[in-house]
Amino acid sequence: MESKQKDPKELFIHRDLSWLSFNERVLEEAGDPANPLIERLKFMAIFANNLDEFLMVRVAGVRRLLDAGYNRKDDFGYYPQELYDAVRQRTESLVAKLYAAYQECDEKEMKKSGIRLLKNDALNAEQKKAAKKFFDTTLFPLVTPMAVDQGHPFPVLPSKTNIFAVYLNRNETVHLALIAIPQPVPRLFRLPSEKDEFCGILIDDIIRDNLESFFRGYKIVASFLFRVLRDGELSIQEEYSDNLLKTIEAEIKNRSKAKVACLQVEKQYHEQLLELICAGLLFPQDQVSVIEGNLDLTYLFSLARQEPKPELSFGSYTPAKKEFENIFDTIKEGDFILHLPYESFQLTVDLIERAANDRDVLGIKMTLYRTNDDSAIIKALIEAAKNKKQVTVLLEIKARFDEERNIDWTRDLEAAGCHVIYGIPGMKTHSKMLLIVRSEEGRIRRYVHLSTGNYNERTSRLYTDIGYFTANEDVAKDISDIFNVITGYSLPSRWRRIVAAPLRLREHFFELIDKEMEFHKKYKNGFIFAKMNSLEDIKMIEKLYQASKAGVKIQLIVRGICCLIPGVKGLSDNIEVRSIVGRFLEHSRIFLFNNNSDYRTLLASADWMSRNFDRRIEVGFEVNKQEIKEHLKFILEEYWKDTAKARILTADKQYVRPPDDGRKHNAQEFLLAYYSSEKNR
């Protein structure tokens, strides 16, 4: 294609720089006065947590390339060193914005709202007494100082933990010691205060004020806090692994020893002491990140949980709940969807619990990628196995940072008698599928639930997703066949209603785009409307550019990474891109193709990313019921009208707010009201 002759930097936004732009939009929500105070603090914590994972995965990956001497351009036109420098500069700028936003919030909004996070020198007598008692009874017995000398080599320091470096002197001899802030204890300790006031102090500061207690007979010359972030990627050669579960368990243990990807230190660090820390960690001192404030602002999640004032948070809401006397009869009557979190995920849980205890249900098959602690779904699957149902679960143990939890669930399910598949070598199973096999009046009937998001009860209140219920026999046969392909040795048949990755999901979307170009050439009505988390696949972007050049109008709602550049003359004139970052995390994937005014609508577990098309097992499915198609189109249109939480991606790769016409339309708040209305339930 013509685009390949150009510099990739003119055609695409680098995926890592685009991700940083997304996290910047999260940070903007922290500074939006229209958001209640506690929600703004939570956005800061989300930004900080997001950035940690980015540094542990993406930046660590670039550092691995640099260490290996790799020096080729990537698909976006960047050399590793060039990308590393660009990412580091951008990251430091965003971190500075984060702490500036926090400082402003602390000095103005928090104090005004009766929230005070104090330092040691600001405590009154009663508060000092409470902090000292907590130190003596809890922190001192728990904390273990670590000497560093010839007899005590530099220890392996855990990732994402705050650690005191302490410089000691005794008899004109200097010593180095380390004290890790204990992770089992919440970082924020609540202090005695007035009735309507919240006062807290970080346990970091309580320990700082009592450091001498750990080093009797020694003089503390200097001390400061630092924090390491280690490479979070597991190095697994799956094709050579006899037992994938044991291999991943072993790699998780090695994660604590992984190479340091980032080292953060307090602004008041001691130069010579820092040199010792960098030497012990084998980390270059010129790449240390100096933080002007408390390290690791994710403790703001704890503050949000402890501050009960309802006026400081988003108003509570109750998801609309569909209730049926017999869920199986309702699904047989016709397909329907749930739109989370506006509608309750409980119906999905009820379906699995009902299946576990229904005497006519013979078997349950499902995929699990990420689920929550104390999962009612896991409990229902265990109950089903105890009730002699045939239960098969594909539980993806390679879901990043959820590996340990998923391994624990695997043990529990296997102990109950479930047949558990750990995943497929070389692939992640990211599809969200549930198949229930039931005996009814002498014949077998299958019930299917498909989703754009995970079977996770906690995130179902925070993420927008679409769940699809059907008893359509063609869909059921397709899903049965997919499970056979995944769990055994079976080549895929020709599916009727399902399209899957890595087989031909990208190709299927290409065919739909090609048809839009054909229709536009004949009827001038080519139109594509899609919503997803990320758009990164180079081949897909080039196909969209081709469609734009052919005159097809394209509207994209892309919450996170978007490597496509819209509105470029002669390349993407007909493409518009918007991102929505608001109260809920936009996670649903909806794809609409005009199809000469007889539009086709698909839902999928996949974004338009190379990994989803090529390295994951994903499922896309077309919705045929007209009522559902119209509702999905309505959802897309409401999001497109958003002027409160939307950002428009411009041809110069910047995100800007929509023009302010004085009438702010918040799509998420509108949909909350829409679904809560009795007539729309």
Describe the protein.
By secondary structure, this protein is of the alpha/beta class. The protein has 3 domains: 2-312, Polyphosphate kinase middle domain (polyphosphate kinase like), CATH 3.30.1840.10; 327-496, 2-Layer Sandwich (Endonuclease, Chain A), CATH 3.30.870.10; 501-680, Endonuclease Chain A (Endonuclease, Chain A). The chain contains 19 helices and 27 strands. The strands form 4 sheets. Strands 14, 18, 19, 20, 21, 23, 24, 25, 26 and 27 form a 10-stranded mixed sheet that branches. Strands 10, 11, 12, 13, 15, 16, 17 and 22 form an 8-stranded mixed sheet that branches. Strands 2-4-3-7-8-9 form a 6-stranded mixed sheet, with helices on both faces. A hairpin with a 5-residue loop joins strand 26 and strand 27 (655-656). Helix 3 packs antiparallel against helix 4 and helix 3 packs antiparallel against helix 9. The longest helix has 33 residues, at 80-112. The protein is globular, with a radius of gyration of 27 Å.
Q: List the uncertain runs.
A: 236-242
Q: Mean pLDDT score, rounded?
A: 92
Briefly note the CATH topology name of the largest domain.
Answer: polyphosphate kinase like
CATH class placement of the largest domain: Alpha Beta
How many E strands? 27
The rounded distance between the terminal residues' Cα atoms is 49 Å
Query: What portion of residues is helical?
Result: 25-40%
Mass-distribution shape = globular
What radius of gyration results from the CA coordinates? 27 Å
CATH architecture assignment of the largest domain: 2-Layer Sandwich
Strand content: 15-25%
Largest sheet: 10 strands, mixed
